[in-house]
Design brief:
mainly beta, three-stranded antiparallel sheet, 10 strands, 14% helix
């Protein structure tokens, strides 16, 4: 009896987790990152992204950071993803003036600020994609 050739698969590939796709703004190449949490099938979107950027439970860190900007018109801070894969938004001092990182969950465009403010939950089955693009709050679905 012989043994067949077995395919070697990394343990990370077998684990369930949150799969996040980041599309490079210049090359349009998709980059995949996975955040592992075996105990949770759902989590807050902001926890998943914090984990992806800073936790040891990731396949690869995505070199990300976050900022908040105070807006006098509505007397509150607004939240933005400042950087993903080391690529920064165009105008960190006035984010909505240029291209910002915009999340898509199951092909629906969302506002990161809204996701954070409303403690939006995602599941490990959700398709999460980030794109760097021009976006005004009025055109982003909540």
């Amino acid at each position: 009896m012989g043994c067949g050739k077995s395919k070697q698969v990394k343990i990370e590939e077998k684990k369930q987790g949150f799969l996040i796709t980041i599309i490079h703004p210049t090359t349009k190449q998709e980059h995949y990152f996975k955040y592992f949490d075996e105990k949770q099938k759902t989590d807050l979107m902001m926890h998943v992204m914090n984990g992806l950027c800073f936790s040891q439970k990731v396949s690869d860190k995505c070199e990300g950071s976050f900022i908040s900007k105070y807006d006098q018109t509505d007397d509150r801070f607004h939240y933005f993803v400042q950087k993903l894969m080391g690529i920064e938004i165009e105008y960190p001092d006035d984010p909505l003036k240029g291209k910002i990182w915009v999340p898509y969950i199951n092909e629906k465009k969302y506002d990161w600020d809204w996701l954070v403010e409303n403690n939006h939950r995602v599941s490990i089955n959700d398709q999460i994609i980030w794109k760097l693009e021009q976006a005004k709050k009025a055109e982003i679905k909540k």
